[in-house]
TrEMBL record:
InterPro entries membership: 2Fe-2S_ferredoxin-like_sf (IPR036010), 2Fe-2S_ferredoxin-type (IPR001041), 2Fe2S_fd_BS (IPR006058), 4Fe4S_Fe-S-bd (IPR017896), Beta-grasp_dom_sf (IPR012675), Helical_ferredxn (IPR009051), SDH/FRD_Iron-Sulfur (IPR050573), Succ_DH/fum_Rdtase_Fe-S (IPR004489)
Keyword Metal-binding belongs to the record: yes
Pathway annotation: Carbohydrate metabolism; tricarboxylic acid cycle
Keyword GTP-binding: no
Stated name of the protein: Succinate dehydrogenase/fumarate reductase iron-sulfur subunit
Domain of life from the UniProt record: Bacteria
Cofactor dependency: [3Fe-4S] cluster; [4Fe-4S] cluster; [2Fe-2S] cluster
Annotated 2Fe-2S ferredoxin-type domain residues: 6-93
Length: 256
């Protein structure tokens, strides 16, 4: 087994402030960044706060920024860095720090709660739902999401613009709206809920300028921009400029 010493620079601090601290830590073959953070805890910084759970890229809790790039610590192999490189580990920048590498991601849970859930089709009991395989395949990609919030962290709309957070759900939750909107059994529209309009008017779809940064950092390789956000934008625009919808709105508005 090969062993070497790596130079790490880890952010330490809390809500009152903090800064980067230098450490030299042992690295063994096959290890990932989370192993090194655990070794730091075990040998030099027992009070270092870090959130993790599965160490298998499935729980989404070990999100951090490694050399400035949002990544899962448990899925970032040490072998991708050269041995003389200083590796910087900092908390997710778009969310408030709790302590060290742990951030308060409740922004995301608030956004999740704002999105109305699936509306079951009337007159069809669960278990009797029938869908074509191609209709299953499209939203299935989005169901791979592990809610690591790396896409939310990297999106420039909120990353440096706290003021946009109230009006913008972020890629993960715009993708959730897209998933529900393309679900062939979702009866939201019949129930009076226009998901395309709410995406635009209430969840800030228009803020997204399809830079694809969210797609680049997704550990599940979900094509967030191409398969969710762009189709949702197209459907929202189709709806807005559909002459029948326009006429319907006009007539609707004239009603007493
Ligand atoms: S594609 Fe849209 S949602 Fe994704 S990072 Fe860019 S602006 Fe944000
Ligand atoms: S879409 Fe990808 S990056 Fe965003 S929360 Fe889900 S798994 Fe993470
Ligand atoms: S510890 Fe679960 S995704 Fe990294």
């Amino acid at each position: 087994m090969t062993t070497y010493d790596a130079s790490f620079r880890v952010w330490r601090g809390d809500t009152a402030g903090g800064g980067l601290k230098d450490f030299t830590v042992e690295v063994n073959d096959g290890e990932v960044v989370l192993d090194i953070i655990h070794r730091l805890q075990a040998t030099q910084a027992p009070d270092l706060a870090v959130r993790w759970n599965c160490k298998a890229g499935k729980c989404g809790s070990c999100s951090a920024e490694i050399n400035g790039r949002p990544r899962l610590m448990c899925m970032t192999r040490m072998s991708v860095f050269s041995r003389d490189e200083v590796i910087t580990v900092t908390p997710l920048r778009a969310f408030p720090v709790v302590r060290d590498l742990v951030t308060d991601v409740s922004f995301n849970y608030e956004k999740a709660r704002e999105i109305p859930s699936f509306v079951p089709p009337p007159g069809v009991a669960p278990g009797d739902y029938r869908m074509r395989q191609e209709d299953v395949d499209r939203p299935q990609e989005f169901r791979k999401c592990i809610e690591c919030f790396l896409c939310q962290d990297t999106c420039h709309v909120v990353r440096d613009h706290e003021e946009n957070k109230a009006a913008f759900a972020g890629p993960r939750f715009l993708m959730r709206i897209a998933e529900l909107d393309m679900h062939p059994l979702d009866a939201a529209e019949e129930a009076g809920l226009d998901r395309k309009r709410t995406a635009q008017d209430e969840h800030g779809l228009g803020y997204c300028n399809i830079t694809k940064c969210c797609t680049e950092v997704c550990p599940e390789q979900i094509k967030i921009t191409d398969n969710a956000l762009i189709p949702l934008k197209e459907r929202a625009v189709d709806r807005k400029y559909d002459p029948l919808v326009w006429l319907g709105n006009k007539i609707g508005r004239r009603r007493p």
